[in-house]
Amino acid sequence: MSTLLKIENLCKSYPRPEGSIQAVHEVSLTVERGEFVAVQGPSGCGKTTLLLAAGALLQPSRGRVLVNDVDPYSLSPGQRARFRAVNVGFVFQQFHLVPYLDVLDNILAPALALGAKDGRRTRALELAAQFGLSDRLRHVPSGLSTGERQRVALARALLNQPSLLLADEPTGNLDKQNGQVVLRCLTEFARTGAVLCVTHEPQAADHADRVLNMIGGKLQ
Ligand SMILES: Nc1ncnc2c1ncn2[C@@H]1O[C@H](COP(=O)(O)OP(=O)(O)OP(=O)(O)O)[C@@H](O)[C@H]1O
Ligand SMILES: [Mg+2]
Q1: CATH no. for residue 11?
Q2: Number of folded domains in the chain?
Q3: Which ligand 1 atom is at minimum distance from the Cα of 93?
């Protein structure tokens, strides 16, 4: 087994005028290739903060993150963006689709970071088909349902065939059938890569190899 994600003593606090908020406190976690790990916990306990820090998107206040044995925060911003594009797929809780790009171009967006947009078109179309979006390719996000946006966000995260997939409530807006499609996809992904998934759904936790509970910024 190889370790795809290693988090050591991670702390993240957000400075606020009224005093800083300690969102994540001394969290250590290892996710091996082949693992699907779910994180559960009440609203505000630090799940998204942990995922963003793991995904090279939010510099920790203390502690260390290693993705494929590389500390992304030791890289320059440009190198880190490229490292992320190659290694990490991220499904945001609020999707963060580009509002003026249609479905196909949103799915293709990570290829732009690698200058490989044309070469990924076939894969983007396959992912759109897998998630039931083939007849929505020319819609911009405002012309999609919430669940459709969520599926575009997952397709985009998978485009560059990353080794680590970080997903923040990826089935939160889906009906049972589409939720199953997404969960099967995450399980399949974890055969060759690794998944760290925030979820409140018992159904999603059932698919995971390990379920971790987070309370007050700490993993139990
Ligand atoms: N940018 C920020 N500035 C200040 N405080 C923040 C910021 N982002 C998050 N927080 C605070 O940090 C804590 C953890 O937030 P986080 O978004 O990680 O929680 P969460 O577990 O993902 O919650 P939810 O289940 O509602 O998505 C919360 O108390 C939140 O108010
Ligand atoms: Mg969250």
Answers
A1: 3.40.50.300
A2: 1
A3: 27
